[in-house]
Design a protein that fits this description.
768 residues; two-stranded antiparallel sheet; 37 helices; HrpK; Type III secretion system translocator protein, HrpF
Length: 768
């Protein structure tokens, strides 16, 4: 049956017809990947931003990939400068490193002896670039047309081929050494190949062999990381796959990237040792000063030098006490990159949209100096700009992540309450909202422009999203996640992911007519609509979702209720209202029944959710003068979004069943991502709600009360804004179990050293 009353009309256009554009990368291989295959052979250079003409029509399932690419090519002069004046930090388009272009001399080489890129043919066609040797690069070039992959792999293999060839006797060895000397990052990397650390200008055969082996090992490890990701995520979207491919290129070239910083070179002022870390400065130098290196590598370096992306990799793999002792330092190592690929990389389009929003948020405040700011920001907020206050907010959110991770090291209750209060004030600040709502879309466009292959992937996924193909893929992935403990598939992640991706389209293509999630749903086949409706009945009308959540080990009844409510709100953002209203009574009855049938649920009803006890939920309701039918209605825990939408603030508060263990915070994830919230604030970061949501979330400070009292303390709820919707933006990608790998006292000192300076700076109680 068709759940929606009628199919939506043809979906609106994505962006306007282009006139011209510029590409983030200029290598022939990169250009070829973005060239239209249709008649005329016009180049489809993707440029994201505003357009001036009226939107052209677009029909979701009929739009071809090439014409969609054409729709995305218009550039916007208004994008020429960043909202935070960051252009000086952006990497300029790199020059071609193909076999037909010349390489400019560098300070690290003798101009008379510097090889041209044409000379790289002797490496590309050597025995060291045999088909067997090139196999390790196959995952990194798989996104290219088949006829271009071999040459791209040869370019990536050049450092290894040069190192092996330089160990020979004869003219080829001299040519290989000239190539090495002409590329400073390669020269330094080979110099420290055997012993690491200090580059002394003396390259030995042992250095050459060690470097080649290190590169081969790094590439092989990158292959393993990609293989693991593909095994775990067979339904990953094109954008996520492109991010992983780019990360793999970086992982495979870590011996080069770690040596690329000019300060590591022989004779450099303020010379530093190669320490295994990669910085944005090093990546930018790799792009600018190494004419013989691969364009694919330079494109990857361009992407990961962006502050937003770099910060996310910086903290990949850090959990527990390690996270508690670490603040983002804008450098990463090989382990960070592998951890990011295997555990933190987006797995679907919704998570990609969330990750891009987080990265854009970090980009928006990169370079804003807050070192001289203090608690006056909160006492006299009008004296500071939206950009300054936004930067403070992000810093506090990052600090909050470390504080939460250090809960077993210190008593963090007062510190968390103070952080929550400060963060909530800044989230509600109109200047902050105005600044971020303008700068985040700009930075999203800038980040996507940083890699031409990513632009192509974003274009492809936009077509998949609007046609419903992406939704159906995510539904199929959810179906495969069922097991004996979780027999009912949860489609809430697929639906919130759809909303997040549509919001991303609005950010990337501001003049587009982007469909709503409900329009996409209404245009799906009957079997898809019925599938989602049947799942709603099983999970909520029949109580399946709450039963599964309450049955999990170490689950909390209050958190389980809120999680189920988050899931339910996602379904209701696309299902017809008459269908949902028809299930209300069953939902109320099943929810109360599951609470009564569960020991944890009964404890919640009786007010025994923690060691200190606290008033029962029934007592709290009675204090509000609620009884009889109204009591039973509230006990149904109707979704927060529904009650807020109807103006029932008390009812909304009653629905925020927050356990006393959550202290001063009220979980705020999963608000209806459809038309019930304002503009772009609804969906940034929503991609993580289906499984990666942190138990504690920032934003709505509810006081010290528990249960309904906590919700009631909300009063006039501040807006839930997109860049905070998934709990401090989930920077660092979540909190994991604490591992007791070090002595507590030592860990406490490291924790204090990490968080105390920020807490002191902004007048927040220390966790001592």
């Amino acid at each position: 049956m068709r759940i929606s009353s009628s199919p939506s009309p043809a979906l609106g256009s994505i962006v306007n017809q282009p006139t011209s554009g510029e590409l983030a990368a200029e290598t022939p291989l990169a250009k070829a990947s973005l060239t239209q295959s249709g008649a005329g052979g016009g180049q489809a250079f993707v440029q994201f931003g505003q357009a001036n003409d009226s939107p052209s029509s677009f029909s979701g399932t009929e739009q071809s990939g090439s014409s969609l690419m054409s729709l995305l090519t218009r550039s916007s002069s208004s994008e020429s400068t960043s909202s935070v004046d960051q252009d000086s930090d952006q990497v300029s388009p790199m020059t071609s490193v193909s076999s037909t272009a010349s390489a400019s001399p560098t300070a690290a080489s003798n101009p008379a002896n510097a090889p041209s890129a044409t000379d790289a043919a002797f490496l590309d066609n050597s025995e060291y670039s045999s088909p067997e040797a090139l196999k390790r690069w196959e995952p990194m070039v798989a996104n290219l047309p088949p006829e271009e992959r071999e040459q791209a792999a040869k370019e990536l293999n050049r450092p290894i081929a040069a190192a092996w060839m330089a160990r020979e006797n004869g003219p080829n060895a001299e040519k290989a050494m000239a190539f090495i000397n002409a590329n400073p990052a390669l020269k330094t990397a080979v110099d420290v190949g055997k012993d690491g650390g200090n580059a002394d200008g003396k390259i030995t055969n042992k250095d050459l062999k060690a470097f080649a082996k290190n590169m081969e090992k790094a590439a092989d490890n990158a292959d393993k990381d990609v293989a693991k990701y593909m095994e775990d995520n067979p339904g990953a979207d094109p954008q996520s796959l492109e991010m992983v491919r780019s990360a793999a290129v970086m992982r495979a070239n870590m011996p080069l990237a770690t040596a690329a910083d000019p300060h590591h070179a022989v004779g450099a002022a303020d010379k530093t040792d190669v320490d295994g870390n990669v910085s944005a400065e090093g990546l930018k130098a790799l792009i600018k000063s190494n004419p013989g290196l691969s364009g694919t590598l330079k494109q990857s370096s361009n992407m990961w030098s962006q502050a937003g992306f770099l910060s996310q990799v910086d903290e990949a793999g850090l959990t527990g006490r390690k996270k508690a002792a670490h603040s983002p330092d804008q450098v990463f190592d090989a382990s960070n990159m592998s951890e990011w690929i295997r555990k933190s990389a987006p797995k679907n389009g919704g998570q990609f949209a969330s990750m891009l929003s987080d990265a854009a948020t970090l980009n928006s405040v990169a370079g804003i100096d807050i070192s001289k700011l203090n608690a006056q920001v909160f006492e006299k907020p009008k004296a500071y700009t939206g950009a300054q206050k936004a930067a403070v907010m992000i810093k506090l959110q990052q600090t909050q992540q470390s504080v939460i991770a250090g809960r077993d090291l210190r008593n963090t209750e007062k510190t968390e309450a103070g952080l929550n209060e400060r963060i909530a004030q800044l989230q509600a600040d109109p200047d902050v909202q105005e600044y971020l709502n303008k700068s985040i879309p700009e930075q999203e466009r800038s980040l996507v422009r940083s890699d031409s292959a990513l632009q192509k992937a974003v274009t492809e996924q936009a077509q998949n999203v609007n046609s419903g193909k992406a939704l159906q893929t995510d539904l199929a992935t959810a179906d495969k996640a069922v097991d004996k403990h979780n027999p009912d598939p949860d489609y809430s992640g697929a639906i919130t992911g759809l909303s997040a991706q549509l919001q991303l389209q609005k950010d990337l293509f501001p003049d587009a007519q982007v469909p709503t999630a409900q329009q996409v749903f209404n245009n799906q086949p009957d079997e898809v609509q019925t599938k989602i409706a049947d799942s709603y009945v099983r999970n909520f009308s029949e109580g399946g979702a709450l039963k599964q959540l309450l049955g999990q080990k170490k689950s909390d009844a209050g958190e389980s209720l809120q999680t189920a409510d988050n899931q339910k709100a996602a379904y209701e953002s696309v299902l017809p209202a008459d269908f949902v209203n028809g299930e209300r009574e069953s939902y109320t009855a099943s929810t109360l029944s599951e609470l009564q049938n569960s020991k944890k649920g009964r404890k919640l009803l009786e007010g025994k959710t923690d060691e200190e006890g606290g008033p029962s939920l029934a007592e709290q309701l009675a204090e509000q003068g609620i009884g009889g039918k109204a009591f039973n209605s509230v006990m149904g825990f109707a979704s927060v979004s529904d009650r807020l939408a109807s103006g029932d603030k008390l009812g909304a508060a009653q629905s925020i069943i927050d356990s006393s263990r959550l202290g001063a915070e009220a979980i705020k994830g999963g608000i209806d991502t459809g038309a019930k919230m304002m503009g772009r604030e609804a969906s940034a970061g929503l991609g993580r709600l289906g499984g990666q949501m942190i138990g504690r979330a920032v934003g709505l400070v509810a006081g010290e009360a528990t249960g309904l009292a906590a919700g009631a303390a909300l009063g006039a709820a501040i807006p839930v804004i997109g860049w905070a919707i998934d709990g401090a933006m989930a920077l660092g990608f979540g909190i994991s179990a604490i591992i007791d790998a070090v002595k507590k006292h030592k860990a406490q000192k490291a924790f204090d050293h990490n968080v105390d300076p920020v807490l002191d700076q902004f007048g927040i109680d220390r966790a001592h």
